[in-house]
Amino acid sequence: MSRHPDADVVSRPWTGKTRRYDIVKEGVIAILVVGVLALALSALFSSPDDPVLTFQGWAKSAPANFYTTTVQELAGTSESAGYGPPYNTASDGLTAGPLNMQKLMGVRIPVDTAQDFVITPLQTQQQPAAVSAAVTAWNAATPDQQSAWATALDDALTAADGDPSKVPNGNYGPVPTLAAGLLAMGQSGAYDGIFMAQSPQAPGGPGFYNLDYTKQILFLGDGSYLDDAATAANLQGNTWGMMNETGSYPGQAWLWLYSFWYQISPFNNEESAPFGSNADAWIFYLMMILSLALLLVPFIPGLRSIPKWIPIHRLVWRDYYRSQHAGAKE
Amino acid sequence: MTTTEPQTAPDETPDSAEAGNWTVGLRNKFFGTYPPEKLLPGRQPAYLSSWIYVFGVLTIAALVFIIISGLVLSFEGPSWYHTSSVGLFTNSVHFWSVQLFFVFMVVHLWGKFWMAAWRGHRALTWMTGVVAFLMSIGTAFTGYLVQTNFDSQWISFEAKDGLNAVGIGAWFNVTNLGQTLLIHVCLLPLVLGVIVVGHILLVRKHGIVPPIDVEVPAPAADPTDPATTEVKS
Description:
The structure holds two protein chains of two kinds. Chain A is mainly α. The relative contact order of chain A is 0.10. The model of chain A has no long low-confidence stretch (mean pLDDT 92). The longest helix of chain A has 23 residues. Helix content of chain B is 63%, strand content 3%. Chain B is globular, with a radius of gyration of 25 Å. The N and C termini of chain B lie far apart (70 Å). The interface between A and B is large, with 115 and 105 residues.
């Protein structure tokens, strides 16, 4: 029987040799095998579930950092206070060349760190007389005065390596009392409850339902408590943390390529402009382009020919090629 | 006396009577494309002889366990597994099924790449597979966000920066548990399910891609039939 190479045959119903094949049986066996594997792995290794970090845990284990971060929220020098969109207008956000989508999308999730993280929680609970007076004094002051007080204490804390006990006397207004009051709330556990129960419908007041933890995550991340815990768990971005999981469990290994870019120059140096300082934007766009390339492999000359140049398909279809070879010899 | 026999107007043939009938049109289109022997074939081309072909169905099998364990978790709520041993085991099945799902899917994807499985009008099959892969990454990511434990606190804190940097964070807020939870259990599985079903239907429609530089026994000689003419690769 004559044979002929035919590229067009790939788009036509197969007319060559066939074999018996039971798709349903294959599917049932696959489900059984995967089921046994999943159940066995679950029984043997369980799954990760490290307890959440709380503001009480932060205030108790690192009170100086909690105090200092509170001052930074009032001074507007914390990471969240200076973040920019979508939380505030303190900066323009990250850019990729002329493209600044962060700024273009605007402030859709407004966050006022001084009011939301500090003043409102203090006002929500009955406070000692000194703290109540400090809140009143803060609210009565002009924004410039508020900024001057908080910035002065923030600078003094920086000079004192973040140790409030070493801060010299100065014109800090009510800020030290506010920070101490919030620290006391944090250590008692009251801050966790009050901060979590803020009303989405009536900002500034107590609420009931709350499924949005934006403010809580931002405040928690402004201090060193969350960061230190992530470092201890080997979850930092510069150590492939994006694809790691707590403990010894496999994480999102499929994010290896995304994580890879954060490990190499120029993206791994946050100080280097324009790529390092805008790494989050550049890497996201880079991954979008690579994903698009993967999607469009069938249409990209060169890329679509790689399987032909590197004949791994010879392994996949070795029985077929062997039979073709044998047939040609006959 | 009444009759139940279908009636057609004197000037209508059975075909013309059904012209413009969307239901009949859809039925004819679907079952014309997918006759039973194509949807559930009992035979396959002889070249389908490799373990690599198993990974597609293994991926679907893992997805079955993800959906079942995910449904149980969704009925009990996102915090159930913190306090219940049955909940923790169900969460573990969900977790390990996801890990298996990605292992199988990546092997399947690489296998199809080296087989150049997009040949012969199968580009859409490849593309739906890639979209399913990318959607799966998004679905798994939102799953990690709704663990309501330390890991989800850290992941949401870190991930917000990447999404905010390109403007997506303004609309998809990873620190909003309500939003991510609903996206994880509703939107993404629904979209992923539709894409996977479409992917499978495309595989059934076009069949398994033949080997590269395939040679087939020549059909009855017909010099005018392009299928029997040699085509340069």
